[in-house]
Backbone:
């Protein structure tokens, strides 16, 4: 057999295999079924958990949510945390950089190994990102 006849035979076998295999989807969409309410599956937990006998014998006991603070704690400044802490939403003020723009431009020309030169270049980069410098 020559190469062309072998290729034709392989092509015919592949074509037969493809037509013989039934095409089935990988997954089929499931219809939504009315299920029982969630309350049938979920059981509410106990308000206060029961401590088993073995556990209580090991020394486990029930405690409150917040620790009991004494008068001594209050005198030292310890108190219970509030439920929520208010966060100020207004700007607190302008940011003060360690150098002005002109000082940073002068210092940036110094030795690259110097920390002050690095700081000056960093400040100029910040000002450039804030679009306060035209470089």
Residues:
């Amino acid at each position: 057999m020559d190469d062309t006849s072998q290729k034709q035979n392989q092509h015919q076998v592949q074509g037969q295999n493809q037509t013989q295999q039934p095409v089935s989807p990988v997954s089929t969409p499931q219809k939504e079924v009315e299920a029982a309410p969630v309350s049938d599956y979920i059981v509410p937990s106990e308000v206060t958990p029961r401590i088993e006998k073995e556990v209580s014998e090991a020394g486990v006991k029930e405690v409150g949510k917040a620790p009991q603070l004494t008068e001594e704690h209050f005198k030292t400044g310890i108190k219970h945390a509030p439920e929520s802490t208010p966060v100020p939403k207004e700007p607190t003020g302008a940011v003060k950089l360690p150098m002005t723009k002109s000082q940073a431009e002068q210092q940036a020309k110094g030795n690259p190994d110097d920390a002050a030169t690095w700081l000056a270049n960093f400040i100029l980069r910040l000002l450039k990102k804030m679009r306060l410098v035209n470089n």
The chain has a mean pLDDT of 77. Residues 98-135 form one domain. The CA atoms of residues 89 and 95 lie 16 Å apart.
